[in-house]
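so my prof wants the structure for this chain in the tokens format not the other one, which i didnt know existed until like an hour ago. anyway here's the sequence
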Amino acid sequence: MSNVDVQIALPKGTTSKMLIVDIKTKSIKVQIKGQPEPILTGELCEKIKAEDSFWNVEDQQSLNLNLEKASEAIWKTVIVGDEEIDTKKVDNSKHLD
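here's what i got, hopefully its the right format
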């Protein structure tokens, strides 16, 4: 898996123009303009290719983040300090077509 997809619930009616999304190599920040607190902010558990990562708003109620990994590895979590998954339970087999 070369990317991580993250979906974040937004207040209904939120448009992309209302958001500040700052994706960096090792950190991310998502904030609604004019709001004092970000919806999401923190250090990413692994490095990403910020220039190849993108985001969009779906149905004016959720934010989809597509983070392109700098190296192919299974992430235990997205943001440092969040709950971690057991990486031994992840199916990382590759299908050859």
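also thought this was worth mentioning. The longest strand covers residues 3-9.
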